[in-house]
From TrEMBL:
Protein name listed in UniProt: Tandem-95 repeat protein
Domain of life: Bacteria
Pfam families found in the cross-reference section: Big_9
Amino acid sequence: GTVSSGFTEIDGVDTATNAVAFGTTGTAEIADLDLASDGIANLTITFANSTIKDGAAEQLLVEGTTSSIALNTTASASNLTTAISSITWSVAVTRTGDASTGTTSVVFTNSSSPTEVTTAQAEALLDAIKYNNTSDTPTAGARTFQVTVSDGTAISSAATKSITVTAENDTPVISVVNVAGAITEGTTLSDSGSITFADLDLTDLPVASEATLSVSALKADETTVLTLTAAQLTDIEDAFSISNVDGNDNDGTVTWSYNIAETALDFLAKDEVVTAVFTITVDDGNGGTDTEDVTITLTGSNDAPVITQDTGDSIAAAITEADIALEADGTLSVEDLDTTNSVAVSVVSVAASQLDGSDDAMTSDSSQPDNEALLAMLTATTDPIDGTVTTGDIAWAFNSGSEAFNYLAAGEKLVLTYTLTASDGTASDDQTVTITITGTNDAPVITQENGDSIAAAITEGTTLSDSGSITFADLDLTDSPVASEATLSVSALKAGGTTDLTLTAAQQADIEAAFSITNVATNTNNGEVTWSYSIAEAALDFLAKDEVVTAVFTITVNDAKGGTDTEDVTITLTGTNDAPTVSSAITSAKAEGDASYQIDL
C-alpha cells in the first residue's frame, strides 16, 4: 500500500526537525515477504529522478549518523554507522537514465558478516531513515518512494511512501551594517547609514518602514531627565527618514538618514543628550517581518546668550549737564537658546572720550572722574533666565550721584561707552550702552581768598595808592575768563557826612582814572585779578578836612560764553586841611623923593 506523510519547510536555519520518517507511525513493519529465508540481505529505496526538484537539498537522513544522502547524486556514502541493533550499513546510490526519465536507487547493505539481517533489524533501519529538504524555498509537491527488501535472490513487493513537501513563508532577515548616528549641535547636523536584509523566499519583495521607538533626554549630569516640548519631540522625530533602494528584490538594502536643523537643537545646553531610537521594519507582505533599531544620539553644545535691541529698547542716552546728579535709563533684551542655562548681566568696562564743541577729540582733564567712579555710575539688572525661560529684559540705569560734570564747557561732550556682558558661565555676548553728556556754560565765580582785598582807604596827604586782588574760578575747564572794570559810582560828602559835595568833571575824571586792573598772565579757567589805585596829591587838594569821596569800581569776570561774575571794589578818599597859601605879590610903595621900593611876600 501507499503511506503518505507531509514535510513542511522550517523558516530559518534547517535543523532537520521536520524530517519525515519512512515508518508509518515510527515503527515500520516488514511482513508477508515471499523470501527464500528469513534473512534480509538489503533494503532499497527507489524514486523517479523527476520527482527530485530541489537538487542536493533533498536528502535521506539516518538516525545516529551525521551524514546525509543527497538524492540527486550518484556518489556512494559508505559506513554510515547507526546505533540501531549495532549494525553498520553501507549505502550505494545508483542512478539510471537522465534527470527527467530515470530512476535512482538507494541500497542499504549490512557491511558486517554475516551480511543478512533479521526482519526486526531491517525494520529498525527503515524507522531510522528520514526524508529531509534543506531548501529555503522548496518546490511544493509529492515525493514518491518505493521501498523493497531482498534476501539476495528474491525481492519483496514494494511499499510506497509518499511525502508531500509544503513551502512556508520565510521571514526576511536584517543584517546590521550601520545602525548608530551621533550628532553634536553646532557641527554637521546629519548622519546616515544602512541595513541589509535577505528573504529566502525568492519571489518575496520586502518593503521597509520606520517608526519612532523612543526619545529620551538627560541633562549634563547624565541623571536628571530633561523634559522636551511637543515641538522639540516633533523636530527630533521628523529628522529621521529611510529609503528603500531601487533594485531591491528578496535581498536588498535600506538606507536611513538623519538631518536636523541647527535651530531645532538650540534648546540643548552643553553636554545635554537626547537619545532617539527608530525602528526599521522589513515586511515581506506575507506575514514575515524583521526589525532593527537605529539609535541617534544628539549632544548639545553651549549657545552664547545674545543681547538685542528690540522695540522700545535703547542703547544710548543724551544728558545735558545741569549742576545736579545726571540720570538716564533704558532696556535691552537678552536670549539664551539653551533652556537650562542661567544668564547674568554685568557692566564690565567703560571708555571715556571728550569732544570739543566741534565734536573733535580733546584731551580729558584731570577733573574727570576716574574709570572706577565712572564704572560705578551704570548698573544693569536682568529678568531671571534660570532654566525655565530663555528670554528676558536687561534694565540699565545711569546715575552720576554727586558728580555733575560741571567741568564740561558749553557744547563740549563727554561720551561714556559702557560694555555690558551677558554670560551663561561658559559663553557671553557684549553690548555697548553710550551715555553722552553735553556741557553747559558755568559762569565764573569771584571769591575773596586769603590776601584778597576789595576795599581801600586813602587819606590826602599820606600814601596816595593802594591795591588788592580778587580770585575767580570757572568750572568749565576750557574757559579762560577775562576781567574788565568799570566805575559803578563816585559820591562825595562834606565833613559831617550829610551834605553832598559836588565834584567837578575834572575832579571826577581824576578819581576814576586812578583805578586799574591787571589779568594775571597765568590765568586759566581759574585765576586772579589784581587791582590798584593811585592818585596824585594835587587831585585831592580840593577836599577839606574830613570831606570824603567814595568811589566804587566794578570788576567783571567774563568767560566769553555768556557767563559773568562781578565784584565791587570800594575806594574811600578822605580830605585833610590844606594851609592857605599866598600865591600873589603884595606891593607897598612909599615915595620919598624920587625913589620907590617894592616888597614881595
